[in-house]
Write a structure and sequence with these properties.
The chain has one domain. The strands form three sheets. It has a seven-stranded mixed β-sheet with strand order 8-7-6-11-12-10-9, sandwiched between helices. A five-stranded antiparallel β-sheet has the order 1-2-3-14-5. The chain has a two-stranded antiparallel sheet with strand order 4-13. α3 crosses α6. The protein is globular, with a radius of gyration of 35 Å. The protein has about 260 residues and is α+β, with helices and mostly antiparallel strands.
Length: about 260
């Protein structure tokens, strides 16, 4: 029967390889191992999620909250700067510029504006701290008004600091609830863009539904400086612009950095 076997196909002499089966098995096993390894790598690759952005981000630290927007980064101290005269608080800060700066009026309203448009969970804690601070204290700022015996009054921010700046305006008028005629002066005082926004943020910060202003009602006999404070009473937020600079009261502590905006 052996002689009847016919070889079909290649008639060239073949050599017997006793290790062929073992070598082929190893190659197959190596291929399977590589495929499994590649599969695991694919599974382990992090998923590319769409970025989630908020208008502001709030990060709590041991002594402060960090509030950020695309334009500003603000550190707000969790404790008030101790009671002192405005001049003493500012001198302490300029002597130690790494400390918290006494907030000026625009700083307070900028913080309020950023919180107002923020949905982060830390918002309620900060707002509670601010509201209670304004309810329980007359909060002194590093802003003030130089009431002029002649000409326009000066609203001064960061007074006696290297970053001091001022606006000329007519602030003198009657005390009472803020009205449209106050808009220009209050824009310079708060840094906001309209009377409606000023009232909205003041009421948001204080949980009061009225906003009042206190100021000189007539021209002084000589130029007179007064400190600007912010506080609340039973039913209103007070923009107080006529306090004697000799009083000793606490202030909010801040560190504020304006971010560089590409293209500006």
């Amino acid at each position: 029967m052996k002689d009847d076997i016919k070889i079909i196909g290649d008639r060239t002499e073949s050599k017997y390889d006793p290790n062929l089966a073992e070598r082929l098995n190893k190659e197959v096993e190596e291929k399977i191992r590589r495929e499994r390894l590649e599969g695991k790598k694919t599974e382990l690759k992090p998923k590319q999620e769409s970025p989630v952005t908020e208008p502001e981000i709030i990060t709590p630290n041991d002594d402060s909250w960090l509030i950020e927007s695309d334009k500003y980064a603000i550190q707000l101290s969790k404790s008030l700067i101790p009671s002192a005269t405005q001049a003493k608080q500012i001198n302490d800060y300029t002597t130690n510029p790494d400390s918290f700066k006494p907030a000026n009026y625009p700083n307070i309203f900028l913080i309020g504006q950023m919180l107002y448009h923020n949905s982060h969970q830390q918002k309620d804690k900060i707002l509670k701290f601010l509201t209670e601070s304004f309810q329980n204290n007359w909060i002194q700022t590093s802003s003030g008004i130089l009431y002029k015996s002649n000409g326009k009054d000066e609203i001064i921010h960061n007074i006696k600091m290297p970053s001091e700046y001022k606006h000329l305006t007519d602030l003198i008028s009657s005390d009472g609830e803020v009205v449209q005629a106050d808009e220009e002066a209050l824009k310079y005082l708060t840094g906001l863009k309209s009377l409606d926004e000023i009232k909205e943020i003041a009421q948001f910060l204080t949980s009061k539904n009225k906003t009042y202003i206190s100021r000189f009602n007539k021209k002084p006999d000589s130029d007179t400086y007064r400190v600007a404070w912010f506080y609340t009473n039973s039913d209103r937020a007070y923009l107080d612009c006529d306090w004697d600079p000799g009083h000793l009261y606490p202030a909010l502590g801040v560190r504020i950095v304006a971010k560089k905006i590409v293209g500006n």
